Amino acid sequence: MSERLDYFALSPEPFRHLMAIEKYLHKSTLGHVLMELVKLRVSQINGCAYCLNMHSTLLRKAGEPAHRIDLVAAWREAPCYSDRERVALAWAEAVTLLPQHQVTDELYDELAAQFDETEIVDLTTAIATINAWNRFAVPFNKTPEIEAAMSA
């Protein structure tokens, strides 16, 4: 499958703003690994090969064990995630799949027990942003950078 067009080159301004959001999020208190796990899970839901490759590579570079990367799609059954990671992954799924899932008060209360209000906004921003990236990469067949990932 070949890329349909280079959206970043054709219209760089919107992506400059998305990159500014990413830069902000890197300074948040959420932590790099948590954000990458969330981005990986959202990208799995959205079927984005480019982002799956990128975020699994970033997790490996961060020293995450292979089983935590491999099992993120089945996080509910895997014992290797903290309560904080579990509720972040549940929130990511609910926010990504709004038509299929209700963002319930119960889920919000669980989230609020693990994250402060600023972190909740930052986490939701990270989820919205990776969804935006996925919604460009998938329809335009963004090619995963396999060579870069294999040398990591």
From TrEMBL:
<keyword id="KW-0575">Peroxidase</keyword>
<protein>
    <submittedName>
        <fullName>Alkylhydroperoxidase AhpD core</fullName>
    </submittedName>
</protein>
<dbReference type="InterPro" id="IPR029032">
    <property type="entry name" value="AhpD-like"/>
</dbReference>
<dbReference type="InterPro" id="IPR003779">
    <property type="entry name" value="CMD-like"/>
</dbReference>
<dbReference type="InterPro" id="IPR004675">
    <property type="entry name" value="AhpD_core"/>
</dbReference>
<dbReference type="GO" id="GO:0051920">
    <property type="term" value="F:peroxiredoxin activity"/>
</dbReference>
<feature type="domain" description="Carboxymuconolactone decarboxylase-like">
    <location>
        <begin position="12"/>
        <end position="94"/>
    </location>
</feature>
<keyword id="KW-0560">Oxidoreductase</keyword>
<dbReference type="Pfam" id="PF02627">
    <property type="entry name" value="CMD"/>
</dbReference>
